[in-house]
Fold this protein.
Amino acid sequence: MPTLSHYETQAFPILSLLKKDLSALKPVQKQKRNRLIALSFVSVLLLLVYGPLAQWFVAADRVLYDQLATHLPTEPLDHAVIVSLDPAKLGGNEISDTYGRIIAVLGQSNVKRIIISEPPALPDNENLPAWAAAMNAIVPVYAPTGHRLADLASRDGFVDLVPDSDGVLRRATLWQLNEGVMSPSLPLAIAFDNEDLSITPRMSSTDDAIFVANYSALPRVDVADLLDAETDKSALAGATVFVDSSPELVGAVAMLPSGQFVTVSEITAALLSDVENDRTIIAPSWVGAMEWLAPVLLAIVAVLFLPDRNRKDIFVLAGVAVVALLLFETLLLYILHVRIDLGRPTLIFTGVAILSVWLVGDEKKELKDAFKKGNDFLSAGRLEPAFAEFRRCPPTETVATVMYKLSLAFEQQAKPERAEAVLEWMKRTQGASDVSRTAMEKVAGAPTRLGRYVIDRRIGRGAMGAVYLAKDPRINRAVALKAIPIEKEFEDEELKEARLRFYREAESAGRLAHPNIITVFDAGEDKGLAYIAMEYVPGIPLKQFTEPKRLLAPKRALELCASAAEALDYAHNQGVIHRDIKPANLMYNPKEGHLKITDFGVARMTDNNNTKTGIVLGTPMYMSPEQLGAEDLTGHSDLFSLGVTLYELLVGEVPFKATNIAVLMTKITTEDAAPIANRRAGVPPSVDAVLAKALAKRPQDRFSCGAEMAIALRNCARYS
């Protein structure tokens, strides 16, 4: 077989122009334009997100951190409790005295340490209470820097809880410059007194802040129980005790990223637990550099790789990138306890992805529009524009069939070089079909060749002729060849009229190019046989699924009939009526789940020159009342026949049955079909309403068009 390079060197000069196809230049120009727009967009976005409007976009970082920090595993401070006084129940002097009594009791209980996170107010002009002077001699006591008790405490540290602008506390200062000396925070000062704690890099003054995640609640001891001499206090031995005047929730001073409201003692306990267990969340200096570098790198990647992709690829790439960013931030936080804010970089990448999706447009719609334009140009005889539009479409079976029709049209216009160009395009994109020719059936009168088509075998027989599987040797493509012995069936004037009708029917069918309609390529006459070359589609007629024991699932039957309704809607808009819709003329491929309407051979043009035939065509049990009456037909007649077909596919019998044609015609024109929803499981009640409308006796009472019927059928399929 000649190779592609052979054709490239031996074919007409016009083939060399195909390599410089104008349709290939347009995508390149579109990609450059899209990248330029994306670059401008991301530049502006970077300036806004990290420039004057940064405070508006920093919420993206905060939201992402909050979601991750909320679920960060934490542990409460080991063997610690909180004792809270209620200021509402005590006066000023009573609070101070109660503090003294609590500290005395705790000292007697051999607690490990006492943390007065919120000491009572002690005015400068008043003497310190007696208990204050002795508190350091009992057990280690810690107090906030700046309070009068700080000079008497074992250690002191500052408490500086400053929430972000949204009121959430995410950051706690670790070190603070005080009169030229770096002073630790209260949790850090307490940790320094822990002999079992080794100094880690996370406690270095170079990291001036740690971050808050969530709080594991500590048990609380009631003041009255603590001061009651009868209460057993042995459980407090070796415990860390926080003493404050902030009851739980009521005395909360901040909200954490987890949404928890905490007091000063609770946040101090959470930070102390993180410090002593080396679980502090920090942001090293390299994190800041990465936070500035990440959005720039992501912007470059987005501009280079997204605008020239289709929508599906953009969604996949954007999804992978976003998941990778989230995973990276999660791993750093959960494993290394390092905070890095990637919310804004994620927002930027997502923004460029959304812009790219908008720029590339709906590829399916564009391809559908290109296919439609190509068909319109082909129908109007404008073959070059049709060729340009079809080349924009991906190489599918449907595109290949219309391209084949286009090559024949070029031949009819005496442009063989353009026909060769079309065929060459088909070979490059679609590939040659390797259909081997089998032995010819030994049937009397069966031809071996019709026109240029080489017959392989007979695959069907109808009332007026046979259908053969044949091959077009020009492109080695399989076709279905419908042959009618026209000279045997008709004579003299009838033969002339039959030929005219035959070519008119072929013309009407040849105008149709739809995924659910068998495509007609060619028509001719040879050896006394009139033939129509059409698309070969392997499949099974739906007639085989009308037996009660072989019925399709109701949902599948409804979906197939919806596809048929859409195809009929397209044909009717082209001015073509099928006139013989029935299960035998609906080819179904179970493997691919695809349906095609075949045998538009009895279709007629419904233009103003041929509106009334006076002839009844079709199969009586599927006919509409107006077709039986030989009236003017519209597309509503096909919808009636499709309704009969659906009825039979669902229950295994037609809605109107009789032993003779006269009774059958009476039933079709006067009787209503029996409901079927209760006759078979899985058939929704709405089907009866759809069938009643489709089988209405008057055309104007049926669905207005096939598209409307398709919508109704798919709605039924949703509930089957």
Observations:
- Residues 1-25, 432-445, 602-618 have pLDDT under 50 and may be disordered.
- Residues 403 and 700 are 38 Å apart (CA to CA).
- Residues 80-276 form one domain.
